[in-house]
Amino acid sequence: MNALVDPDEAATRLPKGLRPHDTGQGTVVGCCLLDIAAIRPAPLPAMVGTSLRAAAHRISVEWDDDSGATTVGVYVPLRLTDSRIAVALGGRVFPGVHRRASVNLTHNGERVAWLVEAGDDLDAYSVRVEASPCRGSTLAVCEPIGGTCLSAEVGLSPRHDGALEAVRMTPSHRHAQPVHVHHLDSAFVAGFTSAAPAPSYVMRNVDVTWTRESVRLLPRTQAIA
């Protein structure tokens, strides 16, 4: 689920070395809601995998690397999940620290409803959303908001010690369908005073591989004449 915010406001939520990515309409913030089946280490067969549901709050960002090239990705301040395994191993055995939450998904063929309830100390990241796919619609990757969401492969998030770690997400396809959001209750999004509704999307039947990524952030220098 997406919203657009003023890049200057988004910048106040980012760690050093990251800056907001501006789509021309604003910076995309929101929450990725994930329903995952058979997650497992890559060499193992699907039959040994486990399922989990998760919510990843994110801000669209960019940074410069050693070569001076600019990468567009996402900053994920927090991930919530109903999986005890992901909580125990995330940020240790595999990248991505997860915090425990109740995550419920219901759907009736037309509407999908998510309810993510975190503990009192994480209530600012609870989410309630109802949405339905827009019939006959598909996403063009040249569309600035959807293109930003689908093209960003690298996510940066705090480790257990507070330092940033990176993970690359490689999907088997990038086909997405716009959704009509009937209801969205997100304290994370509402916490941005400039937040305005933005197009949101659903991806189905996609295989995803997550791998550790080595990222060194360089501060952008400015010449003063």
Please supply descriptive tags for the structure shown above.
mainly beta; 225 residues; Acetoacetate decarboxylase-like; single chain
Q: What radius of gyration results from the CA coordinates? A: 17 Å
Class inferred from helices and paired strands: mainly beta
User: What is the H-and-E element order?
Assistant: EHEEEEHEEEHEEEHEEE
Give the total of beta strands: 14
Poorly predicted runs: 221-225
Please describe the biggest sheet, giving its number of strands, its sense, and whether it closes into a barrel: 14 strands, mixed
**Which CATH architecture would you pick?**
Beta Barrel
Molecular shape: globular
Structure characterization notes:
The protein has a single domain (2-213), classed as Acetoacetate decarboxylase-like, CATH 2.40.400. Helix content is 10%, strand content 46%. It is mainly β and 225 residues long. Strands 1, 2, 3, 4, 5, 6, 7, 8, 9, 10, 11, 12, 13 and 14 form a 14-stranded mixed β-sheet that branches. The protein has helices at residues 7-11, 84-89, 144-151, 187-190, and strands spanning 2-5, 19-20, 27-39, 50-64, 70-81, 99-107, 112-118, 127-133, 154-158, 164-171, 177-186, 196-197, 200-202, 208-213. The chain is built from 4 helices and 14 strands.
